[in-house]
Amino acid sequence: GATGTAPVGTNRNTAAQRVGRAAVDWQSLGFGFTPTNCYVKAVWREQTGTWSPVEVVPYGPNGEATFPLHVASTALHYGQSIFEGLKAFACADGHVRLFRPQENARRLERSALRLNMPVVPAALFLEAVTRCVYENLEFVPPYVEQGGGGSLYVRPVLFGSGGRIGLGPADEYTFMVLVVPVGNYYKGGLSPVTAYISTNYDRAAPRGVGHVKVAGNYAADLKPSMEAKQRGYPINLYLDAREQKFIEEFGTSNFSAVRYLDENGNRYVYVTPDSPSVLEGVTNKTLMELSLDAGMKVERRRIPVEELATFDEVFASGTAVVITAVDQIVYGDQVIGIGKHPGSGQVGPVARRLYDTVRGLQTGRLPDRHGWTYLV
Ligand code: COI
What we know:
The protein is 22% helix and 27% strand. It is built from 7 helices and 18 strands. Helix 3 crosses helix 4 (122-135). The longest helix is centred in the middle third of the chain and has 16 residues, at 215-230. The protein is globular. 2-OXO-4-methylpentanoic acid binds next to loops.
């Protein structure tokens, strides 16, 4: 596809015409890497203590997507790397909008400080993200295809690109943003899956780096999550590292549960773990706010594993998955059923409603009362 050269926001009519024009089979999008037109980057150097301007870097003519890196970069050797995930959507009015990018800018800052990295100012973060989406508008899934969960997934990453062999912070950092058109993270989308509690592993220590989006957290999850998959469970769940008693989060997403307070299902409470080592999810924050809007109660507290069997709904929430319902949880030799009809493939009404609300806000079908969307 043609790469737009107009500065962001100069010609929205042209922008609308570019959406969805890439040679992509929108019907069969999964969650995999595809080269697009380009990625963008900025570099911070200790010498100047400043960030370079944002640079647009095209992928190769055959989709080559490699990046030259110092052989001793601190990202490769010591895992000094953090990332973000957010999404852009084509809306009914033809505009493309990001969802809550300022939240990601703030979290990237918290992650950077924890790994002793320079902060990417929010203005630079928003400029790079917006620019990358704009330069790749052809790859934003068209509005009509969004029933399948399509969006342009935006992946900012900040890493130590300077070389250093003794342990210490790098003298150069690269902030890169790439985009990928995606569909559902799990094949069935919202449909319920069976989760597997990884009882032999901890995800994160109470005062470690579990609350921030550090690359190594995801490396540490690879073996436990692959073991769960080999047993036939697409998603794994961790308990707290200190006592193995309380629900922490899934390998790639936060844990949410719903309890119906009265017999008729007229009062609901949204429950999510309070723990210093769970990732501060933007989707979970959004779901809590939407639950309050809907007159539900929200509880952020410790959740003992024994409480699982008493919930009416459980689901995983995250940017990539949005919401994936969980109706059974394997814990040692026990199978814990969630809700009245575990294993029947039904999605609970609260998960369904929250999902529809989030998607509706993201794609501009519902009024944006909170000011969460951000025009590209
Ligand atoms: C996201 O939900 O955006 C994430 O960063 C999780 C990742 C494993 C896909």
